[in-house]
Design brief:
Blueprint: E1 2-6, H1 11-15, H2 20-29, E2 32-36, E3 39-43, H3 46-64, H4 71-83, H5 89-97, H6 111-122, E4 125-129, H7 136-149, E5 155-160, H8 176-194, H9 197-205, E6 209-213, E7 225-229, H10 237-244, E8 252-257, H11 271-279, E9 285-289, H12 299-315
Parallel strand pairs: 4-8, 4-9, 5-6, 5-7, 7-8
Antiparallel strand pairs: 1-3, 2-3
Helix pairs in contact: 2-4, 6-7, 7-8, 10-11
């Protein structure tokens, strides 16, 4: 079957650098596209041709409405709509515009990112699990900022374990905040990307936004809050239980982590692998798993993540590292007894 879609404007961004956008459309839907004067001819099986034509018609309509596409964004959008028949290009583009993310306009760039954002909207507790660069933390902070600006919550609480990533930093100088800030910097970076610097500073001063190490969560009840536990793979089982039970009324919590980058001492099982076993099937909780296809950093990062996954599968180095990204639940190791002595903890000294 053949169909032609008239393209009068935006042909450069549609094709992209070295025609990479059109190749996404062709490979994703198993069709071929040929440029004929001011139209694009699509050829292939009827359902796929109709789907491709619908995507292109959405693109043409959005361009006519004055929407400009950057090459990277359109490439990501096309990957989503070719993989997920339930989403249209128009709905995907407008999904980010319907939410107030401060100075940013965001839309999910992969199918799993879309599922993640929708899970955060529908559930009060969401786990985002996957490799670096998949947008787990960034999207969680974006949804937190959106909830704060729309007054669905009254504060944001961002926390992560203060665990050394292989290096020994010793006793850090400075006051309490200066000691823990280096470990919390990625959360600050996401905040400053969403909001003006002055606004972030004011919200931090008024404790509307709180960024703190996980130890500061003990004994608290967090009502009317959006709570994010980042780098959860570096929490212990006890810490994970402690944080999860801080959630109060009218609160949402998002827990993010990468099971392939556990920095806990040998013999300490990650609280994230433990909680997957404990909370599997519990109503009202959503687990969203990312893989290397969801990496939205430099293209090399996707290949690096995949290479590490292959290596770990071949060598079986460590239970935590050998978890497959595609289905960590099914392959989570059996519960191991945790060491009794707290001396094995590598959290930085705070006093």
């Amino acid at each position: 079957m053949k169909l032609s879609v008239q393209i009068t404007r935006g042909i450069e961004s549609l094709f992209g650098t070295r025609d990479e956008n059109i190749r996404v459309l062709e490979n994703g839907l198993n069709v071929t596209a040929s440029l004929l004067n001011d139209s694009l001819e699509i050829e292939g099986d009827e359902p796929n041709v109709i789907r491709a034509a619908s995507i292109l018609e959405d693109y043409v309509a959005l361009v006519k409405e004055g929407l400009g596409f950057s090459n990277g964004d359109l490439n990501s959008y096309l990957r989503v709509v070719t993989e997920d028949p339930e989403v249209t290009l128009r709905s995907l583009v407008h999904s980010g515009r319907q939410r107030n993310f401060g100075k940013k306009t965001l839309a999910p760039k992969t199918v799993n990112q879309r599922r993640y954002v929708e899970a955060i909207e529908r559930h009060d507790l969401v786990f985002g699990i996957g490799p670096a660069g998949t947008g787990k933390t960034y999207l969680a902070v974006a949804m937190a900022v959106s909830a704060l600006l729309s007054k669905r919550v009254s504060r944001i609480v961002l926390t992560r374990p203060a665990v050394e990533a292989g290096e020994r930093l010793g006793f850090l100088p400075g006051n309490l905040q200066e000691k823990v800030d280096p470990y919390l910097r990625p959360l600050y970076d996401a905040l400053y990307d969403m909001l003006e610097a002055e606004k972030v500073e004011k919200l931090l001063e008024r404790s509307v936004i709180e960024v703190a190490p996980i130890a500061f969560m003990r004994g608290r009840t967090l009502n009317d809050s959006f709570i994010i536990l980042d780098e959860a793979q570096n929490s212990t089982a006890e810490q994970m239980k402690m944080v999860l039970t801080r959630q109060g009324f009218n609160s949402k919590m998002v827990v993010t982590g990468d099971l392939t980058q556990v920095d806990l001492p040998t013999g300490r099982r990650s609280g994230l692998t433990h909680v997957i076993d404990v909370l599997r099937g519990v109503e009202g909780i959503s687990f969203v798993y990312f893989d290397e296809r969801d990496v939205v950093r430099h293209a090399l990062v996707q290949r690096i993540v995949k290479a590490y996954e292959r290596y770990q599968e071949m060598t079986g180095n460590g239970n935590q590292l050998a978890l497959k990204l595609s289905d960590p639940v099914a392959e989570a190791p059996a519960t191991e007894p945790l060491p009794d002595s707290p001396a094995e903890s590598r959290e930085i000294p705070l006093a």
